[in-house]
Amino acid sequence: MGNRRRSDVRQTACDPATRLGFIFGWSDTVKAGCTPSLAGHAVPSYNRVRMSKSQAKDRAARLAENFAELTPPLTKDEALVEAARCLFCFDAPCMRACPTRIDVPKFIRQIMHADPLGAAETILESNIFGGSCARACPTEVLCEGACVDNTLLRAPVQIGRLQRYATDAADAAGVPFFEAGPDSGRRVAILGAGPAGLTCAHELRKNGHAVTVFEAREMPGGINTYGIAAYKYDTQFALSEVERVKAIGGIDLRLNTRVEGAAISKLLDDYDAVFLGIGLGKTMALGIEGEDLTGVWEALDFIFQTHTMPLDQCVCGERVVVIGGGNTAVDVATAAVRLGAREVTIAYRRTAAEMPAFEYEYQLTKQDGIHWVFSAAPLRIVSENGVASGVEFVRTRQAGQGRKAKLQTVAGSNHVLSADMVIKALGQEPLLGLLKAIPGLKVERGLVVVDRTDGKTSVPKLFAGGDCISKGAEVVDAVQEGKLAAAGIHAMLSSKSD
Ligand SMILES: Cc1cc2nc3c(=O)[nH]c(=O)nc-3n(C[C@H](O)[C@H](O)[C@H](O)COP(=O)(O)OP(=O)(O)OC[C@H]3O[C@@H](n4cnc5c(N)ncnc54)[C@H](O)[C@@H]3O)c2cc1C
Ligand code: SF4
After folding, report:
1. What domains can you pick out in the chain, each with its CATH number?
2. Less Cβ crowding at N or C end of the chain, within 10 Å?
3. CB of 89 closer than 6 angstroms to any ligand 2 atom
4. Pocket lining: 202 vs ligand 1, CB cutoff 6 Å
């Protein structure tokens, strides 16, 4: 697809496979079977066509093009012109709309005065994941959604792209903006190296506290590394954001280290404070017959493969049905199209008005030729020879409006959508086992209950932030909650006389 703006994509033809110029087929490596990261997913024989080496090379190149970033960076001149559109509003609404309160007019003014590094410092001071957020934030509903130019000029200042321009300049210059504070003699343990945990670690290092981060996975960054749609940014970029965090020095990051059960109480004994930034668990179950059949996937496994494996080894069906109606369902469907699925359908049990996916994400699915089926609830996965071959749905009718309105099924409306891959995209389950093992921890509806001002939990010395308190918000929210908890921990450690 190349580096095209979304507006250009809109003009493309409808058939996703044709438009993306995809040749189906598996390399011999794929034929050999599952890789470790696909363990648990038997791979049915989708499109197994033997290819010559040059065909395989072409296919790899086309896949790389399919997954290229949709939004290109601004050139220097474009950035200056865009910055000049800002009105530098007093009490800027864009800044108030940003969960991390980046001083938007200040950094835009710095860009206008040819000081992109100063702009980057302004951004990163408030949000150390400023490069990721520049690319992955739903700016349309945050800063850009609040920009007064929406009313005055019918188009907001492109704050996200300007933010990217500044943080890219910082990356190119390799400037370390932050230094660790003088050693405080205090030690903090952090569970989870996602945006919440790493931000908390970075803020604590600014105040000189020793930090150890325990991360269960082999790569740091959490969902920011494993789960963001690959056309927003790739794994390498996400890992470079982690390096920016680590550049402050003194963060002891221990990968492949899962901490659970009694070990958490031990950390509470051994450290001056503990931060829980563990995010959420696997995709929620549908609770219907056939869920464990070969060919039925959970959203995260499907998306994770695009970050952990070469694209030409990722597994994808020809006819894919995605069950869900949120942004994750959109990410799954758009990834399936880019991997070469011929027909991708998203089925949502409510109407379009209730769909949780953002409007611009929905528009992207339309541009990609993805079909939507609304008011369809899955009843069972149907199979042939033990492999998923479709989903039986029943039509629904809503009593009232909104996502809490009761759903009724329409008698006699059962129908089957054929599919050789079914992907569940219903949101993530909380890590209840881990949370329940912490004595005295207050948990409501699977979320850790905290004081929203400082991340304090019901357990002394234990703080929490990110998805485990907010249930699947955005990277920018996790960053802010990591910051608030670090400030809470610092305040607690500073007030202790021993
Ligand atoms: C598919 C998908 C797409 C998304 N796309 C976007 C997007 O485009 N833009 C956006 O802003 N947001 C997006 N989000 C949301 C965003 O990624 C999350 O809100 C954010 O990553 C939450 O950060 P976190 O640090 O709380 O949790 P996570 O990122 O989940 O990190 C938690 C970390 O804790 C580790 N961990 C868990 N248990 C343990 C344990 N017992 N011991 C040690 N480590 C442990 C995990 O391995 C993980 O690395 C997306 C989310 C999903 C699921
Ligand atoms: S609201 Fe728009 S015009 Fe006003 S300061 Fe923010 S970016 Fe500039």
Report:
1. 6-66+284-424 (3.50.50.60), 76-173 (1.10.1060.10), 187-281+429-495 (3.50.50.60)
2. C
3. yes
4. no
